[in-house]
Amino acid sequence: MRGLRVAFLIALAGHTAAAKRMVIMEPPLARACPSAKSWPQLADCMKLHGLKGTVVRQIDDAKLVVVQPLEAKQGEIEAWALYVAAGTGWKLGGLAQNGGFLADAEVLRLERVTSGARHGYRFDIATSQQSSVSLDQVTVQSSLLRETQATFCSGLGYSCMTIVPSCEQLVFGQTVLAFAGSIAIKDNQIQVTGVGSQPSCSSAETYTAMFQ
Fold first, then answer.
1. Per-domain residue ranges for the chain?
2. Considering the entire predicted model, what is its pTM?
């Protein structure tokens, strides 16, 4: 019995040690290319890690980049990366790993957002993808899902918040489910309001922004 108890304690200690070694990994781009002294150096960093970045929208102090694998054959998207000016260089200020294909995405906006004394960034992406829907809970039909994804970032790190304020599902070109929402920002809060019903959309409620 004593031998079993010792063995149990050893196993427990090993399990505890393994738990302490568990590390939450950062996204690959955040680990590989968090900053660079110049834009060409940033492009070289991505290439070194098997990625390519294309600037799709920019403002005075920020660039929105669609990041894709170098070997992408069908326009696969690795991530949407927001790089912000840092002195004469650039640093990663936000990252949205939504996937998808470039042909199915459209950049709607990139802007700097101010809420009181806090600041951040917002970029909106319209997407469309093949999906399925059941209207009678029995049969399933092919459909097209369209969404607007609004992503909010502080500009200080890669973490962002993505909200889906509007979306619709179409069957044979006819809308069968939809939610038409709008976003208001006040006191570091993001409020979504709207009408309709679509499970893939964000709920009509208030979210805490990540501005600094």
1. 25-208
2. 0.83
